[in-house]
Every structure is written in C-alpha cells, then in structure tokens.
TrEMBL record:
Enzyme class: hydrolase
Subunit description: Monomer.
EC number: 3.1.1.29
Locations listed in the record: Cytoplasm
Keyword Mitochondrion tagged: no
Active site, per annotation: H24 (proton acceptor)
PROSITE patterns: PEPT_TRNA_HYDROL_1, PEPT_TRNA_HYDROL_2
Listed CDD domains: PTH
Site note Stabilizes the basic form of H active site to accept a proton, residues: D99
Gene coding for it: pth
Keyword Lipid metabolism: no
Function text: Catalyzes the release of premature peptidyl moieties from peptidyl-tRNA molecules trapped in stalled 50S ribosomal subunits, and thus maintains levels of free tRNAs and 50S ribosomes. Hydrolyzes ribosome-free peptidyl-tRNAs (with 1 or more amino acids incorporated), which drop off the ribosome during protein synthesis, or as a result of ribosome stalling.
Protein name: Peptidyl-tRNA hydrolase
C-alpha cells in the first residue's frame, strides 16, 4: 500500500432514474453517502465516463476519489481504469462497492481479490485493471425468492421491509469503506463481520 496514494472508491450501479432504487445500484447509494461525509459533490468527469467526487477522510486524512461509472454495469471498468491511471491509484487502493447475491440481506462483507460471482461490474473492473486484487465491499442482497431470475431480481427495487433497514445498511457499508482505507481489509473484516 502506497502511503500517499489516493483511494479510488467505485460505487457500482446503472445510470438513470429508472434504476435509482434497484438492488444493483446500492454501490451508487453508498458512494453518495461517502461524498456527503467528506463534504464533496459529484460532477461529470472529463477523464472518464462517470461522476466523480474528491475529498479527504478526516482532517488531512487519505484522499478519496469517489466514482459512479455512467457506462452501465458491464462496462464499469472503462471509467475505473481511466481514473486509476490519472490519479495514480495502485490496484491495492481500489475499492469496489457492489450488491452481492451470495451474502444475505442485512450483511456487509469486506474482502480483497477473488472471483466476480457473475457480477458484470466486477468482471469489467477485473478485466480493465488486469487484476482481481482490489478490495470489495459486498452489500448483501440475498438470493431471489422462488424461481425469479437473478438478473431481474437485482434490477428490481428493494422491498418495503428491506427499505426500513436500507439507510442503516448503507451507513454501515460506508463505515466499512472507511475502515478499509484507514485500517485495512483484515481489520474491517474483524470489526464488521460479526453481524
């Protein structure tokens, strides 16, 4: 980990109002909260097809570059690699925030590296970065009920019951991102994987 290098936090989602409340867009929701925490506003990037916000974590703390790619999920990596190159962010300082079918709703998990689990946003990032060794904050959405297609499930909105907990969980996911930046993935796992 390079001490002075900024961190690139990628909130994965799809652009457009019709997707705003989808399970697949939880990465955008967490990125929005992180931007408000560091007092930054998103604006269109000239360097990448995405919205970018920049700020520091705490007074004089690490620099965060938050990005919401506007390319749709399966091309997310294009914006990520452009920004990583411009801001000189090593892969070890890239964090993807995404919905995760293999984690039950109500849980947020941190990990570094690994497979993409069929997630097109992660697949695009791994390909563009030529590495899978970036950190991930996996926001559990659980498996679809019955025989519902997983693709339809992630492109539907959170249920009424889930929405009651959603703000708390988005807050927790933002805490996990900050913990990874300040203390590392293992520390974040030890602190947040209990519940």
């Amino acid at each position: 980990m390079t001490e002075d290098a900024p961190w690139l936090v990628v909130g994965l989602g799809n652009p457009g109002k019709e997707y705003a409340g989808n399970r697949h867009n939880v990465g955008f929701m967490v990125a929005d909260l992180l931007a408000s925490r560091v007092g930054a506003k998103f604006g269109r990037s000239k360097r990448a097809h995405g919205e970018v916000a920049e700020g520091r974590l705490g007074f004089g703390g690490p620099k965060l570059v938050l990005v919401k790619p506007l390319t749709f999920m399966n091309l997310s990596g294009n914006a990520v690699v452009s920004l990583a190159q411009f801001f000189k962010v090593p892969v070890s300082n890239v964090i993807a925030v995404h919905d995760e079918l293999d984690v039950p709703f109500g849980q947020v998990r941190a990990k570094r590296g690994g497979g993409e689990g069929g997630h097109n946003g992660l697949r695009s990032m791994s390909k563009s970065l030529s590495s899978k060794e970036y950190a991930r904050v996996r926001f559990g959405v659980g498996r679809p009920p019955g025989r519902q297609d997983p693709a339809d499930y992630v492109l539907s909105d959170f249920s009424g019951v889930e929405r009651k907990e959603l703000d708390f969980l988005i807050d927790r996911a933002a805490d996990v991102v900050e913990a990874i930046v300040l203390e590392g993935v293992e520390w974040a796992q030890n602190k947040y994987h209990g519940g």
